[in-house]
Amino acid sequence: MILRLSRAILDSMKELVTFSGASGYAAGELRPALEKVLAPLLEVRGGVSGKRLMLKPNLLSWRCAEDPAAVHPAFLLECIRLLRDAGAKELAIIENPGMTTAPAIIRAMGIDGELARLGVSVANCADYRKTELSGETGFRSMELAREFGSFDEVVNVAKCKTHAMMSLTLATKNLFGLVRGSERLGWHLAVGKDFGRFADMLLALKLRVAPGINLVDGIVGMEGNGPGSGDPVRLGFVAGGTDALALDDAVVRHLAVPRPILLTRADAHGLIPEYEERGECPPLPAIRLPDPPPPGLAWGVWFPPLVRELLRKKLLPRPVLNEQDCVGCGVCVRMCPPHSLQLQGRRPRFHYDSCIRCFCCQEHCPKGAIHLRTSGWMRLLTGAEKFLRRIFPNRLYALLTSGKKNALPR
Fold it and tell me: Which domains does the chain have, with CATH numbers?
């Protein structure tokens, strides 16, 4: 009896992750799938009756039907209807897209009228304040949209898509939209060369916001040149979780892709909670990821700074332009934190000596004209590492990182 009670208490302390299959966005299939995912989360969170809810969806852009750069409008609408039916007192969509506004994207999606009928407000983040962080991952403060603290609950609505720096954008990365746009550029500038450090910043943000309802639109995801210009890929799943990191961890395990650096850093900090998984995730196809970013060249931390900087420039991927796709809009130039791009003859020109490899140019290019190219040195090094790992299994990385404070786990 005591053992059963102890087990029940332990199970109740676990976070919850839920899955359901859905092949498309038609209401007859989407609503039942979302109900299966959302209802258990609401039960664990004590329901939403009488609560004020802020929805933070991924609204990077919307340029065509089923644009995989954003949460699908049907997905967003059905989430709102279900939360409204569950008794939510107030619903607001608040987001901070990089190059436009949340109301403009909602209008482009064609759902502004329906949202108005449902009484849902749509706004850009506007009230930014310096916000103290836990310091658990080394970050003490950040300028965040104060709106998230004005609601009873944050509903984090993410898209399953690729990302040049983090490999994948899921629930945790989606919270970066709560940072002021200019400060987002500042964070890229501050930690852009060290992807592990950037992941630590995202983890600090997640710990502060701590959304209790997290959803992922994985019906049509993105592969390839993400997060703005990749290719749509039909994955056919909907997922939810009471914790963003638990949800990300479960989705990655079902996708069977290499573990993203965000999760390896979360592992290193002991931040991924125990979780229970419910529902059924359909078999997921392999998706084409961007080249995985090297982990900050952590194995080279004992080199002098000038040598380490030279290694980064030689080994990290670099953004390159496909001139046939470029329209000369200048967005990449405006979004470059260290001003390493200049327009010459209506074409951007890269100055790689000052490029910090933050890939803001690639992320925001509206035509997908910028791609990442792995250096020949990195391809050679990767091949050598694979060869050595076959000869010395499980020993090479331990040798390279032995005793190094900043080494990242594999």
Answer: 2-279 (3.40.50.11440), 298-401 (3.30.70.20)
